[in-house]
Amino acid sequence: MDTNLKSDWTVIKESFDLSCDLRHIAPIGSGHINETYHLVDDDKHWVLQHVNSNVFPNPQIVQQNFDRIAKHLKLTDYPLEILTIKRTKNDHSLALANGRSWRLMKLIPNCKVLDTAEHGQDAYNAANAVGHFNNALSNLPCSEITPVINGFHDLQLRLNQFNQSLLKNHNNRVSLCKNELEVIKKFAKLADWIPKAKANQLINQRVVHNDTKISNILISNTTGLAKAVIDWDTVMPGYCFYDYGDMVRSFVPAGGEDQPENSELRWDVLQALTEGYLSSCADSLLPFEKENLLVGAEIIIFMIGVRFLSDYFNGDIYFRVSRENQNLDRAKTQFALLEQLHSNYSNWQQQLGLVSQTKTA
Ligand code: GN1
Ligand code: MG
């Protein structure tokens, strides 16, 4: 059990008016940023989370966005479960204990999460859920959501941060990564693509999830269908490419996010994912956006690889690790997938029926 939870428990219990004790709490989830627990109180099941304020400097804003998203989803015909929080006795969305912010959400029962898609059907179901999420939020004005992390998916900013990490060079790790440095040089030009498409008004900024890895989609144990899209912390203005791309990187390699030796691009999974996504949100996408989903995938796969490698060079201070070189393996996995997608781009594009008819960015 984490020491933060132990030291903050008395305040958490009092704030949320709970009667259980630490014995009724167990860690769940596989997130790299927040600490997450399953808590049982009087036969009610909750998810307790410590919102990491090193990453989210203003957790209040995260919760304001959360409320706005829930309100909007309830007004649409969004077919999945909507996350619900329990407020504190004093009617706050967060309990503050020793400077740390804790929130309590209703647990959605009888569900599992996956670390990768086992087969095409998983990919179709999960991507269909993300499509519903994107579709339902496509008419929420961006001005109603406050960005919680500036430049979160700004590739140029991430490359600048990468350059800083080269100077940090924790334990001389840069010298072990010649191949990865070559990949970064080769793909750095992707940083222009979204700014150009935006300037040419070919893509629409909209409220998107920004973290659609497969473990953020709850799957029903009984039906095998998606029940909820969870982890709304980074829901912010962005582009459809971010959510499509994050699915590709987390659904398609059989080994998930951190097994470079198991990072083969599974064509059937990519195809099912794309079909599942378009089945629920094609109507809210512009033709140019649909035709360029794979460019979006390249951008996000590359960007997250860059972020993992930066963290490796910084000494693993951002993404939680459970073993040595895990961030390096995460970066290698992204880059291996990126190279496969890139080298066969026109072929995938054709087979997915995403061939460009409109002008290029
Ligand atoms: C982080 O917290 P978690 O695990 O949902 C990260 C995402 C990365 C992801 C990689 C706020 O998400 O951007 O894509 O790890 N979240 C933040 O697995 O940086
Ligand atoms: Mg997240």
Give your account of this protein's structure.
By secondary structure, the chain is an alpha+beta fold. The protein folds into two domains: 105 residues, Phosphorylase Kinase, domain 1; 233 residues, Aminoglycoside 3'-phosphotransferase, Chain: A, domain 2. It contains twelve helices and eleven strands. The strands form three sheets. Strands 1, 2, 3, 4, 5 and 6 form a six-stranded antiparallel beta sheet that branches. A three-stranded antiparallel beta sheet has the order 7-9-10, covered by helices on one side. A hairpin with a 5-residue loop joins strand 9 and strand 10. The site of 2-acetamido-2-deoxy-1-O-phosphono-alpha-D-glucopyranose has 11 residues, from loops. Magnesium ion (MG) binds next to loops.
SSE layout:
Elements: H1 3-15, E1 25-27, E2 35-41, E3 44-51, H2 59-75, E4 85-86, E5 95-97, E6 100-106, E7 111-112, H3 120-137, H4 155-168, H5 178-187, H6 193-199, E8 206-208, E9 217-220, E10 226-229, E11 236-238, H7 240-251, H8 267-281, H9 287-291, H10 293-314, H11 326-343, H12 345-351
Antiparallel strand pairs: 1-2, 2-3, 3-6, 4-6, 5-6, 7-9, 8-11, 9-10
Helix pairs in contact: 3-7, 3-8, 4-10, 7-8, 7-10, 10-11
